[in-house]
Write a structure and sequence with these properties.
With 286 residues, the chain is of the alpha+beta class. Helices cover 22% and strands 28% of the residues. It contains six helices and 14 strands. It has helices at residues 20-27, 91-94, 100-118, 191-203, 252-260, 272-281; strands at 33-37, 43-44, 67-72, 75-81, 88-89, 130-132, 137-140, 145-147, 152-160, 166-171, 181-184, 207-218, 223-232, 244-250. A four-stranded mixed sheet has the order 11-9-13-12, sandwiched between helices. It starts with 19 loop residues before the first helix and ends in a 5-residue tail after the last helix. Keywords: Hydrolase, Magnesium, Metal-binding, NAD.
């Protein structure tokens, strides 16, 4: 099971990275390593996606292209958007196969590269911005503003009915894939308010006993998934048939039977959705 609860070993060196000279010195370190990501934020791995393929920096340091992710066991780790060679995967595909440290590197690199690609201009005045702080911020010389990567919070909820069945469903375009339900937090909402609103909008359920489960970065492109469990007041549900095409309550035996028959598919093991479903199957949901 993927664990995001412990402290990360990736030191983001926030106290030093404002110095371009210091970052350039790290780039020249014999211990420096570089993760290349292509224009779809896919990175090179060993066969089957079991290990990140990090290389030594191979050109002169360019502060506008090379992103310092941090130090890992005192080794500087950078990322760059560049052509890749060999087998490539995105974070979603292989996160469950990576070590905790590799997962932190891959998530940080993906989030940072996605942000720089999508935000080349100042959101305040529209002027061009430049990279500062080793890639952790951008600066607009026109309005003299610094800008930082955005994270979009989303809630994802494992809902049980009074008989301890789990509510699963899917987008109308998902085919046989089903999951627990999720949605973005809106401006001015608390996380708990977002849980109530989203679940009412998607499946028309009223909830009680909302309990925090855990979180997961999901840099496709910049989400932070915040997991909860909750109890439905009743088993009555309603869907719109358009955005949500299917929803149903499952016992553990029913879910297992449909999975074994190939009638449904669950989220990939790298996702917090998978963790929530598995916690329910193991009777370990809070």
């Amino acid at each position: 099971m993927i664990n995001w609860a412990t402290a990360s070993d990736l030191d983001r060196v926030d106290e030093h990275r404002h110095s371009a000279e210091w970052v350039a010195h790290l780039w020249r370190s014999p211990e420096a390593k570089l993760l290349k990501l292509d224009d779809q934020s896919r990175f090179t791995t060993n066969a089957g996606g079991s290990k990140l393929r990090l290389v030594k920096p191979f050109v002169e340091y360019d502060p506008q292209r090379h992103r310092l992710l941090g130090l890992l066991d005192d080794a500087p780790i950078f990322a760059v958007e560049a052509l890749t060679e060999g087998e490539v995967h995105d974070f979603r595909d292989v996160a469950h196969q990576l070590t905790d440290n590799e997962r932190d590197v891959a998530a940080t690199a993906t989030a940072m590269i996605n942000w720089h690609r999508s935000e080349p201009h100042c959101p305040r005045c529209g002027g061009p911005t430049s990279v500062i702080n080793g890639g952790s911020a951008r600066y607009c010389p026109t309005c003299e503003q610094e800008h930082f990567p955005r994270t979009d919070p989303a809630v994802i909820v494992a809902i049980r009915d009074p008989d301890d069945r789990l509510l699963l469903g899917g987008n109308a375009k998902w085919g046989n894939r089903i999951s627990v339900f999720a949605g973005f937090v809106e401006a001015g909402e608390s996380l708990e308010q977002a849980v109530h609103r989203e679940m009412a909008e998607e499946v028309d359920v009223r909830l009680t006993d909302i309990t925090y489960f855990g979180s997961q970065p999901w840099p496709m492109p910049r989400s932070l998934m915040l997991g909860f469990s909750a109890r439905a007041v009743s088993a009555e549900i309603s869907i719109d048939g358009e955005e949500i095409g299917y929803a149903a309550w499952f016992t553990r035996d029913e879910l297992t039977a449909k999975l074994e028959a190939g009638e449904i598919a669950l989220p990939g093991r790298s996702s917090i959705a998978s963790r929530l479903v598995q916690a329910w199957r193991d009777d370990e949901l809070p």
